[in-house]
Amino acid sequence: MNSSKSSNTQPFGICLQLDIRLFKAMRAGRGPAWLMQCAQVVAQRSWLLLLVIVVWVSWRRHQTLYLALVALLFAGLLQLLGKKMARRWQAKRPFVLGLCDNHLGHSFRAGFPSSHALVMGAVVGVLVPFAEPIPGMVMGAIAIMTGWARVHTGAHFPSDVLVGLSAGFLSGLSLSKFL
Q1: Which pick of 7, 41, 115, 165 has the fewest CB atoms within 10 Å?
Q2: Positive or negative CA dihedral for 178, 129, 74, 54?
Q3: Closest Cα to residue 160, out of 125, 123, 121?
Q4: Is the Cα dihedral 159, 160, 162, 164 positive or negative?
Q5: At what angle do helices 66-89 and 158-176 cross, to 10 degrees?
């Protein structure tokens, strides 16, 4: 087996080792049933609360949904790019590696970077410069909690989420300078 094939479980081999250690240290994929149930709800439904705040911030700022539409369109484009990168790198998810059960009933497609994190990071990045402090912090907290939930349920490793949130947020923040 050549080295390019043996290292394609994560873009960086050492990152997988660190991710596995962090995943286990977080007791991700395991723990009390109530915590897993909370993580499942957050992982699957937090976008609804974020969407409500996005619409509110956009309306409050410009009396129009312009910012919300720009943020969501940009996030959609970034998601397509992220999925293309994920297909190229073919980084396996924790449940695929047998580290936990598939708590979200997720597909087996590659997980680096996290599409959820990319999208939420981008939306927050676009809107936070226009939001009042409290809604901005709430949007950021939702994105972070969703990232934690995606890791805790075994859908992603910590680096999948950290890279997704960071890349999404910085890209969105860059775009916001032109709005």
Answers
A1: 41
A2: negative
A3: 121
A4: positive
A5: 140
The tens digit of pLDDT for each residue in 86-144 reads 998 888 999 999 999 999 988 888 889 999 999 999 999 999 999 999 999 999 999 99
Neighbours of 24 (CB within 10 A): 14
Kindly write down the DSSP assignment for every residue of 72-114, as one continuous string: HHHHHHHHHHHHHHHHHH-PPPTTTTTSS--TT---SS--SS-
Amino acid sitting at position 161: V
Left, alpha or beta for 54 (phi > 0: left; psi -120 to 50: alpha)?
Answer: alpha
pTM of the model: 0.87
* pLDDT tens string 47-59: 999 999 999 999 9
Give the Cα separation of 132 and 108 in Å (integer).
Answer: 39
Q: What whole-number distance in Å separates Cα of residue 52 and Cα of residue 48?
A: 6
| Distance spanning both ends of the chain, measured CA to CA | 50
d(CA 151, CA 114): 10
Query: Using only C-alpha atoms, what is the Rg of the chain?
Result: 17
Residue 8 reports pLDDT greater than 80: no
Q: What is the mean pLDDT of residues 44-73?
A: 92
* C-alpha to C-alpha distance for 144 and 101, rounded to whole angstroms: 22
